[in-house]
Amino acid sequence: MPSIFISGGAAGIGLATAQRFARDGWTVGVYDVNPQAVAAVKADHPEFITGTLDVREPAQWAEALTDFTAHTGGALDVLDNNAGILAGGRLDAISPEAVRAQIDIDVLGVTLGAQAAYPYLKVTPGSHLVNIASASAIYGQPDIATYSAAKFYVAGLTEALELEWQRDDIRVVAIWPLWAKTALADADTKSAKTLGIRITPEEIADRVWTSVHPNTADKLIHRTHYSVGVQTTVLNNASKVVPNFVSRLVNKVIAQH
């Protein structure tokens, strides 16, 4: 039975992903920093393997993965680096603590997760590391500058590890959603109001599923990035062919700056 470990899995995209994979018989691990949310998930889904995890702490990553793989015979087919936070507002208006928290969770946490999962992924043939990126990494976004920059990092890390880990038969991919109907979208940001919140956690979960079940073409071209939704696909594709000043103007309009 294949297995997936999901960080930040007790709500939103993480929980939707857990439910999506469980429907097809996967062993699902839901780990989250919120023990109350973890307990609620366990009550609703006793078949899930659950635990607490602060992704900023290497020791907790090691403990959580040891716990989960004790139920899978040591195998790990997919690590879903899902945990993330967002603090909306101009950089000069948010606190240093909010800046640090986003970098610690969205950058450090993702990197530590990849590092901790590597020994398990490399001994599981055809394994995957899935990183949740964001359409905010297509072009830097005002009012969520730190979050946007963190997702640029996630995109770069994904590309680097896709090359670095290919020889270990570990496929590394990134999922690129726009604003989704989760708690992150509660931030008062102009781009969310301009574009609307159209994507559901279930759609993103389906994209995670697709990314770890690649077709022949995806394998041949070493597909690394998976957009979610029409808006993200259009913006991402356009950014590759239009001059930079056009991308700047489009994003200026979207963010109403």
Quick structural summary:
It is built from ten helices and seven strands. The protein is an alpha/beta fold. The protein has one domain (3-254): 3-Layer(aba) Sandwich (Rossmann fold).
Question: Main beta sheet: strand number and arrangement?
Answer: 7 strands, parallel
Radius of gyration from the CA trace? Answer: 18 Å
Extended strand count: 7
Structural class: alpha/beta
Q: Mean pLDDT across all residues, rounded? A: 91
By CATH, the superfamily comes out as NAD(P)-binding Rossmann-like Domain
CATH topology: Rossmann fold
CATH class equals Alpha Beta
- Low-pLDDT residue spans: none
Q: How many separate structural domains?
A: 1
Order of helices and strands: EHEHEHEHEHEHHHEHH
Tally of separate helices: 10
| Gap from first CA to last CA | 50 Å
Strand-residue proportion: 5-15%
Query: What global shape is seen?
Result: globular
- State the CATH architecture: 3-Layer(aba) Sandwich
Helix percentage: 40-55%
Main sheet: which strands, in order across? Answer: 3-2-1-4-5-6-7
